[in-house]
Specification:
The complex is a heterodimer. Chain A is mostly beta strands. Chain A contains no helices and eleven strands. Classes of the chains: A mainly beta, B mainly beta. Chains A and B meet through β5, β9 and β10 of A and β4, β5 and β10 of B.
């Protein structure tokens, strides 16, 4: 059974760069597409972007200029970088997997990382 | 972007009630519609994919219908563990978009 574990700094100052990594356990990066989703306090879910098993990426246009998603197949992990952070980027950040056989639904999620941007 | 609109934003019900949540897409998304359940402090969980397919391990009291622009999630008999926020999501195209959520609690 695939599990995701995520790590990275949780407290940033304005203008700094967020860097989060998601490790894939019990499965392979070649078996799906890999996403980042965030949730500001008390608000709904916002899709940030994805990287496919072949390395192709798609991003939310609202964040595209600031986002990088990459993967390291040797370590079976994928990463998010979001630069020029502001208080508006304060949120819980989740990594997730989607599969074509569930119509690209996100069937496995990481536990979430709380990220706070404050001076 | 395909805007997804859920209604109601919140609802209160009793144990055993049948409840229905609606999700409307701004344009046709065929059946590329998924439903998630999120409990406080937890990651979302996939309930239904492809508008009407129950994800493995999800109780059969959950069901989904719809195609095109209008979709529904039904809980046939509300249980205490169903208290949560429910989100719809389209995977017809990029960017993936979610509804704003429906908070379900007890009367």
């Amino acid at each position: 059974q695939v599990q995701l574990q995520q790590w990275g700094a949780g407290l940033l100052k304005p203008s700094e760069t967020l860097s989060l990594t998601c490790g894939v356990y019990g499965g392979s990066l070649s078996g799906g597409s890999w996403h980042w989703v965030r949730q500001p306090p008390g608000k709904g879910l916002e899709w940030i972007g994805e990287i496919s098993h072949s390395g192709g990426t798609d991003f939310n246009p609202s964040l595209k200029s600031r986002v990088t998603i990459s993967m390291d197949t040797s370590k079976n992990q994928f990463s998010l970088r979001l630069n020029s952070m502001t208080a508006a980027d304060t949120a819980v950040y989740y990594c997730a997997r989607s599969l074509v056989n569930v119509d690209y639904g996100m069937d496995v999620w990481g536990p979430g990382t709380t990220v706070t941007v404050s001076s | 972007d395909i805007q997804m609109t859920q209604s109601p934003s919140s609802l209160s019900a009793s144990v055993g009630d049948r409840i229905t949540i609606t999700c409307r897409a701004r344009q046709s998304i065929s059946t590329y519609l998924n439903w998630y359940q999120q409990k406080p402090g937890k990651a979302p969980q996939l309930l239904i994919f492809g508008a009407s397919n129950l994800q493995r391990g999800v109780p059969p009291r959950f069901s989904g219908t719809g195609s095109g622009t209008d979709f529904t999630l039904t809980i046939s008999s509300l249980q205490p563990e169903d208290i949560a926020t429910y989100y719809c999501q389209q995977t017809y195209n990029f960017p993936r978009t979610f509804g704003q959520g429906t908070n379900v609690d007890f009367k």
